[in-house]
């Protein structure tokens, strides 16, 4: 789990490791690194992006800011096409993604409706790839693997992290803790992927003392840090997207596991959310947890106090106190799409979406409908925003590299070994669907 920085206002010990994360996706996993690309869309100019985000795009994705915006736009175009194709051509539709050159690809197998589906995809300007299996057939293989796994001894089953539908390679992919495990004959050995288990993040402590009175302050954006407090327990996380609830109240959408007392959410005893007055000191209270979900989903809705509501009435994401990016919509996760996260611990960093609509089991919790991206995040980044282009995409939830002190180390290891950091995220679209009337602030 990508833990918030967690502690009591007294000395706290460094936490141990969580049990392994099990990943079982029902959509796609993309196992390639980003390369330079030229896409066909024409979104707003990259000059409107903040310098810190442009630097992260160039450093992590190795593409220009214009290409980043183009890819993000193309991803949403193919996402809309895929939604319709899944309904209209279920027997032949094999998935859709962006390839490593930023081009939209639609996979089609043989069967009823194949010619019509091809014409629709090509008319939309997408590349069509012929594949042997539809997504429906791959789902059948995934189910067969899960049945096989149920019959395996614990010494094997416990080393299997999960199985995903890998539409890019038109196969299922199995993630394991170590190489050489026996597999059923229908699993391609090249699609058995060794992945290190995630580690719990470090704990931190906040100093005791009086909490500052509310003050006007400046705007608070997604990516800014906050502390949540329940009794002697305090967590440090990052604000997610600003928004309003169905009653027009000002809220912020962050992670569920950032609430140190989930059962109290929405009551008079709800855990408080505070501004940070320094690295280890609480500032003014900003609000409290109106709703927190941790189980199948991982999100919190923070009700902002009226006296500081004006500070949240913006649609921006930033890193530190640098210039922000303005959010102008909500996006759907697409394999291969560029994505950048902001967090109060590590700022902006970018990668590509490499799995969507997946289930991630961390300890005894099973998160569903999550997506993952090739991004490093560390404790304190929890609850922060993920964007694709200028659109809200997700909330940081869990990380495969939470035990490292800085991202440079796992990023270097990933470059040398191919075992790149993985950030698991809660889709914003799912949060909005679960809470009618909830809105993300946009331009």
Question: How would you describe this protein?
Answer:
- The chain is α+β, with helices and mostly antiparallel strands and 443 residues long.
- The protein is built from seven helices and 25 strands.
- The longest helix has 24 residues, at 65-88.
- The radius of gyration is 21 Å and the shape is globular.
Explain the layout of strands and helices.
Layout: E1 5-8, E2 21-29, H1 51-61, H2 65-88, E3 93-98, E4 104-108, H3 114-123, E5 127-130, H4 135-150, H5 154-157, E6 160-166, E7 171-176, E8 192-194, E9 225-230, E10 233-238, E11 241-244, E12 250-254, E13 272-278, E14 281-294, E15 298-304, E16 316-317, E17 325-326, E18 329-330, E19 338-341, E20 349-362, E21 365-373, E22 385-388, E23 391-399, H6 408-417, E24 423-427, H7 428-434, E25 439-440
Parallel strand pairs: 4-5, 7-8, 18-23
Antiparallel strand pairs: 1-10, 2-20, 3-4, 6-7, 9-10, 9-13, 11-12, 11-25, 12-15, 13-14, 14-15, 16-17, 19-20, 19-22, 20-21, 21-24, 22-23, 23-24
Total DSSP E strands = 25
Structural class: alpha+beta
Q: Which residues form runs of ≥5 with pLDDT under 50?
A: 8-42, 198-204
Percentage beta strand = 25-35%
The shape is globular
Q: State Rg.
A: 21 Å
Question: Largest sheet, described in full?
Answer: 9 strands, antiparallel
Sheet with the most strands: spatial strand order: 1-10-9-13-14-15-12-11-25
Keyphrases for this structure?
single chain; 443 residues; alpha+beta; 9-stranded antiparallel β-sheet; 6-stranded antiparallel β-barrel; 7 helices; 25 strands; globular
